[in-house]
Write a structure and sequence with these properties.
single chain; 175 residues; 2 domains; 4-stranded antiparallel β-sheet; 1 helix
């Protein structure tokens, strides 16, 4: 009977080991990118010069908003030289202290066309703003507008979210 238990534990240990090695290998090869100071981005071992221009900076900070307020951030991405790149737009270092997540929404547009909307992310592991993979060719520039809205819902008390904040950095994530 003890031999069967030992065999069972050994098999489970080998399976866990293989799963762990696979997960670590996958994490090593998964690509998340942000522009360096010189704007070069390396995606899948290909270096491209990406120019990201923001209205002020890449930091999104929502604080002291009252229901009905909106915050708009505009930025553009240019693929100066390099191959066609595929990416998503996300929020890095995300903090969202609101308790009623459904009250803080966003809309992201690319060249005026909607590419993402809904509740503003509140889980750092699920921080995508664009709902689909974006593609940018060499020499192409894409313009983006991010609008964050704190909805006014008179049917509930929104007092719990007074003085709450959202913060993070807009970045491109290679896919």
């Amino acid at each position: 009977m003890d031999n069967k238990k030992t065999l069972f534990v050994s098999v489970v240990a080998v399976i866990v080991f293989i799963a762990s090695v696979t997960a670590i290998s996958y994490a090593f090869y998964t690509v998340s990118t942000t522009p360096n100071i010189d704007n070069t981005v390396k995606i899948n071992d290909v270096t491209a010069n990406i120019d990201t221009t923001l209205q002020d900076d890449n930091v999104v900070t929502v604080k002291d908003m009252i229901p009905g307020d909106k915050l708009t951030k505009t930025f553009s991405i240019t693929n100066n030289n390099g191959p066609t790149l595929q990416y998503k737009i996300a929020v890095l270092d995300l903090t969202n202290n609101f308790s009623r997540y459904q009250d803080v929404t966003y809309e992201l547009t690319e060249n005026g066309e909607p590419i993402g909307s809904g509740e503003f992310p509140h889980d750092p592991r699920n921080n995508d703003l664009s709902t689909s993979v974006r593609t940018i060719n060499q020499g192409e520039t894409k313009s983006y507008t991010l609008t964050i809205t704190y909805k006014n819902d008179p049917s509930v008390s929104q007092m719990d979210d007074m003085n709450k904040t959202i913060s993070g950095k807009i970045f491109i994530k290679g896919v």
